[in-house]
């Protein structure tokens, strides 16, 4: 059964690029010419690629020739590295309640033991933070104190949108959390309205109170990043995780400078999917600054893509009945995936060894064709192995359309200070930029041991997800090389209990914790709202990591 083209996948989104051509169904039927013969009628597409990536190494040419023969449209897709600016109208400063100038913050000095030093590490000079107090009664979303606005990188014309909700419980003492959706290129407003925020949006476009919101006992910041995602915008683009990390550090630094009442509470970063790439980099960036006002205490990654080389080995087991659910594929397709895995792993090893886009792009395309493509063609939901994808145009979930309709209302955009002309849940161009700049296949898990030396790390996974499945997340967490590996691997999984029922399993040692959440897909709070709030509250409360 073939399914219609999806615009973009919420999680491991490169699969959508493969699916656009239904590559595996056509291998051998529409073979392309080697690179030097590929032309769009005006200009060789490889010229566009070298402009973005630099000159192709001689060793990479054979690999790209092979990919152009195997994967229809490979070179043309790789040449589409254009990020289209979003139409926008910047509001005058008079319309904002607060503006924090990074240059002013950067100029602040303090004296410690007779030595003068900058109050906060930079660079912050190019950044401003604009803040709008949101009237809860205007939108009917919770009753707590709220702020929205933009972080502006004036030097690079980048503007990141955020929305902050104070804790319902004890905001003077409760922790503060940054939430990030993945994609790359999907808005965190989806996490807000579909998963863990104070309200959801129903089919009538009305907000509905969420009693299991994570702001029940924590203040939460939802951020649209990278630029040109959701309400964020720029005339340029960000196409790699490291570049995005500078924006996150500036945002948090200026936010806590404006609101010092939140800066002393414990701070945590949580996210899902491609946030498995984002969060290790963002946390490392924050921890690298000695003089900071960000009290980072832990990170949590849900159904993340963090170590592709290890995780890709678990696609075949998950699709073929070894992940706790019935097999989706026929035995012959499972065998084909087994046959393709050594080549996939070889390509990813080359990506890991060089971290060059010339190696990482072919690895990503080949592996996603071979390991995700067969599952996609069944028409099953890549985010939940238990069900069919019933809404191809909206990432398999009709709720994403309801959210987009709500956030495109004029009164909503006005109340939040949105400066773009429209909102969309995901941006395909951003996704392609990250993929074809080689970011997808890079080994960001190598940052995790350094993070574990300083703060705790939680890896959790809904066990019905396919795209970033629990088998792969458990596998990479146990394969990770760090001083506590032996002790961590020796710990048995124990039940997570809520109201006398188990909703998952947990294992924890030192600063490292893994959770398998039962009967939940890619978006754990969507399927298991009570369970997700339970483990979140217990985690930020330090149950698994405080002595």
UniProtKB/TrEMBL annotation:
SUPFAM superfamilies the record matches: alpha/beta-Hydrolases (SSF53474)
Compartments, record wording: Vacuole
EC number, as in UniProt: 3.4.16.-
Annotated Gene Ontology cellular component terms: fungal-type vacuole lumen
Coiled coil region boundaries: none
UniProt record, GO biological process: proteolysis
Molecular function, one GO term: serine-type carboxypeptidase activity
Family to which the UniProt record says this protein belongs: Belongs to the peptidase S10 family.
Protein name: Carboxypeptidase
Annotated organism of origin: Xylaria flabelliformis
Taxonomic lineage: Eukaryota, Fungi, Dikarya, Ascomycota, Pezizomycotina
């Amino acid at each position: 059964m073939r399914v219609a083209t999806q615009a973009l996948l919420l999680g491991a989104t490169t699969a959508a690029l493969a699916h656009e051509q239904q590559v595996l169904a056509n291998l051998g039927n529409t073979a392309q010419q080697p690179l030097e013969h590929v032309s769009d009628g005006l200009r060789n597409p490889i010229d566009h690629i070298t402009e973005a990536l630099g000159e192709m190494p001689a060793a990479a040419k054979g690999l790209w020739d092979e990919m152009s023969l195997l994967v229809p449209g490979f070179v043309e897709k790789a040449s589409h590295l254009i990020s289209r600016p979003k139409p926008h109208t910047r509001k005058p400063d008079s319309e904002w309640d607060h503006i924090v100038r990074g240059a002013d913050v950067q100029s602040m000095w303090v004296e410690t033991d007779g030595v003068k030093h900058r109050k906060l590490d930079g660079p912050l000079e190019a950044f401003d933070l604009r803040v709008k107090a949101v009237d809860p009664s205007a939108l009917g979303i919770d009753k707590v104190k709220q702020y929205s606005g933009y972080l502006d990188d004036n030097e690079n014309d980048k503007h990141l949108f955020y929305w902050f909700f104070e804790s319902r419980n004890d905001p003077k003492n409760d922790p503060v959390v940054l939430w990030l959706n993945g994609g790359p290129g999907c808005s965190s407003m989806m996490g807000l309205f579909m998963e863990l925020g104070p309200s959801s949006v129903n089919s009538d476009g009305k907000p509905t109170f969420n009693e299991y919101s994570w702001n029940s006992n924590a203040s939460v910041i939802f951020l649209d990043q990278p630029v040109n995602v959701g309400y964020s915008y720029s005339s340029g683009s960000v196409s790699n995780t490291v570049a995005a990390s500078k924006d996150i550090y500036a945002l948090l630094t200026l936010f806590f400078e404006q609101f010092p009442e939140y800066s002393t509470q414990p701070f945590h970063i949580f996210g899902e999917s491609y946030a498995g790439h984002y969060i290790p980099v963002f946390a490392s960036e924050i921890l690298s600054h000695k003089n900071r006002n960000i009290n980072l205490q832990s990170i949590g990654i849900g159904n993340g893509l963090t170590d592709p080389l290890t995780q890709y080995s678990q696609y075949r087991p998950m699709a073929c009945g070894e992940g706790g659910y019935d097999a989706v594929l026929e035995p012959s397709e499972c065998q084909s995936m087994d046959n393709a895995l050594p080549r996939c792993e070889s390509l990813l090893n080359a990506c890991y060894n060089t971290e060059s886009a010339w190696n990482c792009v072919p690895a990503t395309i080949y592996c996603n064709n071979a390991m995700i493509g067969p599952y996609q063609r069944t028409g099953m939901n890549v985010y939940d192995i238990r069900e069919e994808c019933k809404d191809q145009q909206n990432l398999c979930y009709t709720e994403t359309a309801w959210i987009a309709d709500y956030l495109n209302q004029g009164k909503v955009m006005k109340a939040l200070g949105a400066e773009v002309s429209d909102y969309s849940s995901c941006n395909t161009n951003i996704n392609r930029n990250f993929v074809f700049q080689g970011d997808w296949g890079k080994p960001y898990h190598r940052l995790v041991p350094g993070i574990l030396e300083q703060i705790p790390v939680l890896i959790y996974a809904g066990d019905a997800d396919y795209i970033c499945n629990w088998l792969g997340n458990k596998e990479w967490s146990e394969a990770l090389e760090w001083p506590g590996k032996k002790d961590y691997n020796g710990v048995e999984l124990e039940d997570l209990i809520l109201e006398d029922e188990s909703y998952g399993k947990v294992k924890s040692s030192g600063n490292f914790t893994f959770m398998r959440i039962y009967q939940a897909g890619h978006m754990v709070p969507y399927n298991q709202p009570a369970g997700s709030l339970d483990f979140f509250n217990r985690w930020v409360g330090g149950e698994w990591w405080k002595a």
